[in-house]
Specification:
heterodimer, A: about 450 residues, alpha+beta, PmbA/TldD fold, 9 helices, about 40% strand, B: about 425 residues, 2 domains
Chain lengths: ~450, ~425
């Protein structure tokens, strides 16, 4: 656990600047077994200190890989010097943003480290299950990925904190030859917040999901191309969560709103069907711990939920302290940095479409000709709200019943246009707990939602 | 203690471990980065980082560890962690390191930065954009100087010492005219001097103009099979997808590559010659040894459509009885063609010029569909306008066999050298398609 050597360095903060000092340790563990071969077996650790100083509308920032009192003082000094250097170029000086009440915030748990052998043995055990039960696979890959971080945050004019984000995920990738001899692939991930014993102390649940994954692979090996065009679809919660993150979430990050996103002129306006609500949860969702609980951000802001869309109306943006002041709202703890050397950016935490009242089976039954889209590999969106998701698993829906599986395809649309077509929302939320957002810096996030019925453009032959 | 001395201590420590072979890199990096938002400097970062990466093989078991500290104790801990990881693994005779090479010192790029000049050039670019591209909203720019000093050693006796420094400018922008806005576009150039105006480098000027021209986009309203000209930035995206499923370690070990047994055969159009050339003079910062510890050399992966070799590591070479690639960076240098870019456009009956494809990573069967971004519709040899909500679908293997032309013009941005590539037989569908 990181020792707090930073709090006592507050006396070195420049009184004319708003300063944040952050100490951080990040740990990465990777094991990859491919067709029974252990091809990656790696551990890495990085730690260090960064300081950020705000003066008249610009920031000085510095970081060092050392973690010591002397390094902290030098880092504060370098960040302060950089802020002054930039101030020389700054003709349009801004007032400082408001102070936040001081407090000390800690997360309920810290990081537990495990020997590499435990991680390798876990992957071997899962790989052996797949190899024995499914010998007809073209290839199999088991990946263990752990990316945990612990942070100490010390501020001049906000809350201080000592928090940790332990997270581990097992990915299983299966390949099989289709009837035409072409390789087809499916992937799923298991795990989430916590360490290896939290998530994999017994593996029956993982094996059940691998069995389901194998069945999907079989279906996909006999799959057909989707028919291109605008279609009625049921989006599985995995895909709906991606919509919440990519298609809506990014457009309502205040830095992108300032960059000209489509959300800018739509605040307070109807942007979606009445059935649609989207919230970026801080640490608690629906009465339970959120998949990636954030209690304080890297600017010292106590984390609160950010309501983005309510009853189809765009209610708010996500902010850092500076943008919150610009828009005259309270910051809610969305500024986070990935590595110790990264400045905090406006980031999502646990972004979720709120559940409705429909049953999934009724939703499928209501579609005459469309698709049920279950799995997405990745997604992207831009300022206009135009988005795309890669679909790696899905089925045709014909006359209210599931038909053949479809081969990999892509769906796209314009977020607010698509959300206006939502006419059914299921009553059960499922979370994707292993997301990594790639906005300049990588960042652990989670996303979730119910199944939703809408119209979307699907790619195909 | 400097990192050279730390490296020598690490080598001695490794040598105390019986029956062990391995390699390690120790590096120090200093980064100065300036952020400009909406035409104003908003952030100046100075980052000091260190890294120690160790790989060991003991009893035919491999393990690796890394830590961002260069003290003697930290380095010993990294070695010990790597050994513990190896002990947890499986024995495999295919794990190996390169044999020892003669010690070498390398100096690359610019080692004495001029940060004030970097600030001037960045301000100048913001001014040039404001003056010449009035419908561009400059969202963010990052100007940086990165300097690193590293030592690589292995138990075979190799000792490579490298000093490298480079400048980089990255601009992110959108077209903006009243309530009209385009999607985000970005452009990047790596350089070893600040002699030229940034706007004249790489494809910065063209990317800005293309983005301005993307305001008031049109919609393609049907589905058809046509030609696509991939810009150099998009060509590298498509080639990365293609090669990522065919010639690199995961595809070969998994056995999912459809090219595994096709070395010596024609796999793409004869118009394409694709090389990995870290030593090309147009590449600014590059690897000097492979990840396995061999001296990096340029090689041609595909020559006039014929697959010369795979891009595989020493481990995969041993495991799958295939070649080992002469470098591990896959630094793209694609030969120019003989067709002027403008003639490529004139030759098109119906199709798109595509600047990026927003899509999922295609699977090993090469099927790909995605949204055409920063793209323009072409009909009867004329650009009719930018498009939105337009998708392309194709099979990468089929598409790269159906290359119609490769441009004479090349994009050199310091990290790659690529032409535009025109392919036929791509399915293009609009919202009503």
């Amino acid at each position: 656990m990181l020792e707090d050597i930073l709090t006592k360095q507050k006396s070195f903060f420049d009184t004319g600047m708003k300063t944040v000092l952050r100490g951080q340790e990040s740990r990465f563990r990777r094991v990859i077994i491919q067709n029974g071969n252990l091809v990656v077996n790696a551990r890495s650790e990085e730690s260090g200190i960064c300081a950020r100083a705000y003066l008249n509308g610009a920031y000085g920032f510095a970081s060092t890989a050392e973690y010591s009192e002397e390094a902290a003082r030098k880092t504060i000094e370098a960040a302060t010097k950089n802020a002054r250097y930039l101030d020389k170029f700054n003709a349009d000086k801004k007032n400082a943003y408001p102070e936040i009440a001081g407090s000390m915030i800690t997360s309920p748990r810290m990081i537990i480290d495990f020997e590499q052998k435990r991680l390798v043995d876990l992957c071997k055990e899962i790989d052996a299950y797949i190899a024995k039960k499914y010998p007809d696979l073209l290839s199999r890959t088991v990946v263990y990925r752990e990316d945990t971080m612990e942070k100490i945050i010390v501020t001049s004019d906000a809350a201080d904190g000592h928090v940790a984000y332990p997270r581990c995920t097992v990915y299983v990738i299966l390949n099989m030859a289709s009837a035409e001899g072409q390789p087809v692939e499916v992937m799923d991930s298991f795990g989430g917040f916590g360490h290896i014993e939290d998530n994999y102390s017994e593996l029956n649940g993982v094996y059940e999901k691998i069995d389901e994954l194998y069945k999907k692979l079989h279906d996909k090996a006999e799959g057909v191309y989707a028919s291109a065009g605008v279609k009625t679809v049921i989006l599985h919660p995995n895909v709906a969560g991606m919509i919440a993150h990519e298609a809506v979430g990014h457009t309502v990050e205040a830095d992108l709103v300032q960059g000209g996103s489509v959300a800018g002129p739509n605040l307070g306006k109807k942007v979606a069907s009445d059935l649609v609500g989207i919230v970026d949860f801080a640490h608690t969702a629906f009465g339970d711990k959120a998949p990636l609980p954030v209690y304080i951000d890297d600017e010292g802001v106590p984390a609160e939920d950010a309501v983005l869309v309510e009853g189809g109306v765009l209610k708010g943006y996500m902010h850092d302290r500076e943008s919150a002041a610009l828009y005259g709202v309270k910051p809610q703890g969305n500024a986070r940095g990935y590595a110790f050397s990264d400045e905090p950016l406006i980031r999502m935490r646990n972004t979720c479409v709120l559940p409705g009242k429909d049953k999934l089976e009724d939703m499928i039954a209501s579609v005459d000709d469309g698709y049920y889209l279950l799995q997405t590999g990745n997604g992207q969106a831009d300022l206009t709200g135009e988005f795309m998701f890669g679909i790696t698993m899905g089925y045709e829906i014909k006359n209210g019943k599931l038909g053949k599986a479809i081969l990999d395809t892509t769906v796209s649309g314009v977020a607010f246009d698509m959300l206006n077509t939502v006419d059914m929302v299921s009553d059960t939320v499922t979370w994707n707990t292993s997301g990594t957002c790639g906005k300049k810096q990588a960042m652990p996030v989670s996303m979730g939602g119910p199944a939703i019925k809408c119209k979307i453009t699907i790619g195909g032959r | 203690m400097n990192i050279g001395e730390i490296a020598d201590k690490t080598y001695e420590y490794l040598k105390t471990k019986d029956g062990l072979k391995g390699d390690f890199t120790i590096s120090e990096t200093e980064t100065n980065e300036i952020t400009m938002k909406d035409g104003k400097f908003t952030l100046f970062r100075t980052l000091f980082d260190q890294d120690v990466s160790v790989r060991v093989i003991k009893d035919n078991k491999e393990g690796s560890a890394s830590i961002n500290k260069c003290t003697e104790d930290a380095v010993k801990k990294a070695v010990d962690d790597a050994i513990v990881s190896a002990q947890a693994g499986d024995a495999d005779e295919c794990f190996d390191i390169a044999p020892g090479m003669d010690p070498e010192k390398f100096k690359m790029g610019v080692l004495e930065p001029d940060i004030d000049k970097l600030m001037e050039r960045t301000e100048e670019l913001a001014r040039d954009i404001a003056e010449k591209h009035k419908k561009i909203k400059l969202i963010e720019m990052f100007a940086k100087y990165v300097k690193s000093h590293s030592v690589f050693m292995n138990t075979g006796g190799t000792r490579d010492e490298s000093d490298c420094g480079y400048y980089e400018i990255y601009a992110e922008f959108a077209g903006s005219d009243g309530d009209e806005t385009t999607g985000i576009n970005g452009t990047v150039v790596i350089m070893d001097n600040l002699d030229e105006k940034f706007i004249d480098l790489g494809s910065i000027e063209k990317d800005l103009a293309d983005t301005e021209n993307s305001l008031k986009p049109m919609k393609v309203t049907d589905k058809f099979e046509g030609d696509v000209i991939f810009t150099p930035q998009c060509s590298v995206q498509m080639l990365s997808f293609l090669l990522g499923n065919t010639v690199v370690d995961p595809a070969i070990i998994a056995g999912t590559s459809v090219w595994k047994d096709k070395v010596g055969e024609e796999v793409v159009s004869p118009l394409l010659t694709i090389s990995s050339k870290p030593w090309d003079k147009r590449i600014i910062a590059h690897e000097v040894h492979t990840q396995d510890g061999f001296r990096s050399e340029d090689y041609t992966l595909i020559e006039k459509g014929v697959l010369n070799c795979l891009a595989t590591s020493l481990y995969t070479s041993n495991k799958c009885k295939v070649n080992r690639a002469a470098n591990s960076s896959l630094t793209f240098v694609v030969d120019e063609g003989d067709t002027p870019y403008e003639d490529m456009i004139k030759s098109m009956k119906r199709g798109l010029i595509v600047g990026a494809v927003s899509c999922g990573h295609p699977g090993p069967n090469g099927e790909i569909s995605g949204v055409a971004k920063n793209s323009f519709y072409v009909e009867d040899g004329e650009i009719k306008g930018a498009v939105i909500e337009t998708m392309i679908s194709t099979n990468l293997f089929d598409m790269f066999k159906n290359v119609k032309a490769v441009s004479k013009e090349l994009l050199c941005n310091g990290s790659m050298v690529l032409p535009s590539i025109q392919c036929g037989g791509v399915t293009i569908s609009g919202t009503e398609g």
